[in-house]
Amino acid sequence: EMRLLSLRRLTVLLAPCFVLTACNSAGLEGTPQPGSAIAPEFAEWIADRELAGDFGDPLMSARREGGILRQTFLNAELAFDTEAAADSRVSLSPLGLTLGLAEPPVSQPPDPAARYFARTGHTVYTGFLEAYGRLGGEGVVGAPISEVRFEEGMIYQYFANLGLYREQGAPP
User: Fold this and answer.
1) 56 with 6: CB under 8 angstroms?
2) In the sheet that 63-65 helps form, which strands lie side by side, from edge to edge?
3) Do the Cβ atoms of 94 and 20 come closer than 8 Å?
4) What is the pTM of this model?
5) To which H or E segment does residue 72 belong?
6) Cβ atoms of 122 and 116 closer than 8 Å
7) DSSP letter, residue 144
8) Mean of the per-residue pLDDT values of the chain
């Protein structure tokens, strides 16, 4: 079974994320509040894409940072921009980049069927292609910012907005 990288699994890496996303000029307004409701600005977008199970529960109430409304979930952070075009008002925050998970680019693989992104210099792992497309591809997940890793029985790959992982023995 494919899963998004859970904040629980990345506690050490995500500490800076909470500092970056939870701090704002309103003081304690952005502190984690388990059991928070999904903000209406995000609810329809999540439901239309059937992503509630992928993003997990909200970790805090939505908070405004400048003109952007943000809400952090277990596996992602969403941003709502009223200035953007109606079809692109909701996006994922680029946490993979914020957390410094990007790796140096690598050469394009010789396989012409590989989904290589010249802009980042990385290829989507073939075992993640189906989930990558289902979740919204580059528009939602973002471009790959690392190559695939095989560690401790797990397969990992980081993207601009999300990380994907699964057990090595699990089917794609």
Assistant:
1) yes
2) 63-65, 68-72, 77-81, 90-92
3) no
4) 0.68
5) strand 68-72
6) yes
7) B
8) 81
